[in-house]
Amino acid sequence: MSTLPPPSFESKVCTLVELEARITRLPRPLVFTNGVFDILHRGHASYLAQARALGASLVVGVNSDSSVKMLGKGDDRPINSESDRQALLAALESVDMVVLFTEQTPVNIIEKIRPDIYVKGGDYEIDALAETHLVKTWGGKAIAIPFLYERSTTSLLGKIRS
Ligand SMILES: Nc1ncnc2c1ncn2[C@@H]1O[C@H](COP(=O)(O)OP(=O)(O)OP(=O)(O)O)[C@@H](O)[C@H]1O
Ligand SMILES: O=P(O)(O)O[C@@H]1O[C@H]([C@H](O)CO)[C@@H](O)[C@H](O)[C@@H]1O
């Protein structure tokens, strides 16, 4: 019986050190976004496709399991492990690279890769974010993408549990 190689999308998951080495090969404008992406849903898929369409490549920063605990989403969160959340995002056509972060915010990654565009969903006041102020220091832009579909991990969990 032959052993199949791992799916090629797994290679999109990298460390910050690897990302810094690969970043010059990603076409610009470079878009960066971040989040927990605990139970992936249609809202996420649409959001990431729209984010990618704002530039020529998209890097996604994913909260580590320990950093999710800092966000107050609940003691039982995340439901999916950091490794699974990264792999699912990497499997999306719109996503070029996936990198984990362990801090409360992704500002360290942003400082290292200096994206041209920072994106969050319409659930955020984009001008109030530290990430926005940071990208503007090198002439980058920050863009909030309005929700096309009202979906959330929290509401999906509510349905499952009720
Ligand atoms: N329905 C949606 N449509 C568009 N963008 C979304 C939607 N839900 C979340 N986003 C965006 O996706 C990113 C990750 O969001 P997040 O993981 O918080 O999703 P969520 O489903 O709202 O999760 P939770 O219910 O745990 O807060 C964020 O940048 C957020 O703005
Ligand atoms: O999935 P979420 O909860 O939308 O992602 C969070 O976004 C925060 C945002 O960038 C404001 O700083 C971030 O700080 C947090 O770590 C999550 O990624």
From TrEMBL:
Its signal peptide is: none
Reaction(s) catalyzed by this protein? D-glycero-beta-D-manno-heptose 1-phosphate + ATP + H(+) = ADP-D-glycero-beta-D-manno-heptose + diphosphate
Protein EC: 2.7.7.70
Query: What Pfam families would the database entry show?
Result: CTP_transf_like
Instruction: Indicate the enzyme's highest-level EC class.
Output: transferase
The residues covered by the Cytidyltransferase-like domain are 32-141
Q: Which domain of life is it from?
A: Bacteria
Q: Which UniProt keywords apply?
A: ATP-binding, Carbohydrate metabolism, Nucleotide-binding, Nucleotidyltransferase, Transferase
Gene Ontology terms: biological process: carbohydrate metabolic process
Q: Which SUPFAM superfamilies match?
A: Nucleotidylyl transferase
Which GO terms of the molecular function aspect are on file? ATP binding; nucleotidyltransferase activity; phosphotransferase activity, alcohol group as acceptor
User: Which NCBIfam families has this protein been placed in?
Assistant: cyt_tran_rel (TIGR00125), rfaE_dom_II (TIGR02199)
- What is the official name of this protein in its record? D-glycero-beta-D-manno-heptose 1-phosphate adenylyltransferase
Organism this protein belongs to: Polynucleobacter wuianus
